[in-house]
Specification:
Layout (H helix, E strand, L loop, with lengths): L4 E6 L13 E7 L2 E4 L2 E5 L9 E5 L3 E2 L7 E5 L9 E5 L4 E2 L5 E2 L1 E5 L11 E5 L5
Antiparallel strand pairs: 1-2, 2-3, 3-6, 4-5, 7-8, 9-10, 11-12
Length: about 130
């Protein structure tokens, strides 16, 4: 199966520093449909005497069809450590004036001098 994608590649001056370098590909459409992302942020639960703030942007997904987004970020440093947050959002939730958002939730990786994790949940920013 062939799927048509469009986008552009970004080349930065520092990518010439060694023979093994990469470029960033920014997709703008998938199978003829524009793609979009959502921002997400929040604060984890309060465990082991502290919490963590986090922020990130979801992976792109096609617009106008049922979809979910993968997400990944690392929490801000607190109590001398960080945690990873990753998962897949719930399905798109339509908004009354157009656009949509996604719910997300999960548990961070285990880390810290006293190993522990935190729960997190929230809603992404709305789409246009």
């Amino acid at each position: 199966m062939k799927i048509q994608v469009t986008g552009f590649v970004v080349h930065s001056a520092d990518s010439n520093l060694d023979s093994e370098h990469s470029h960033t590909l920014f997709l703008t459409s998938w199978d003829g449909r524009p793609i979009h992302r959502h921002h997400f942020s929040g604060v984890t639960t309060f465990n082991a005497g502290h919490d963590h703030r986090y922020a990130g942007t979801t992976e792109p997904a096609p617009t106008g069809v049922p979809h979910n987004h993968q997400y990944f970020t690392v929490t801000y440093l607190n109590d001398g450590h960080k945690h990873e947050i990753r998962g897949v959002t719930g399905p798109a939730v339509p908004m009354p004036n157009g656009g949509h958002y996604h719910n997300f939730q999960g548990v961070t990786t285990v880390n810290g001098s006293h190993p522990h994790s935190h729960k997190y949940s929230g809603k992404t920013s709305p789409s246009d």
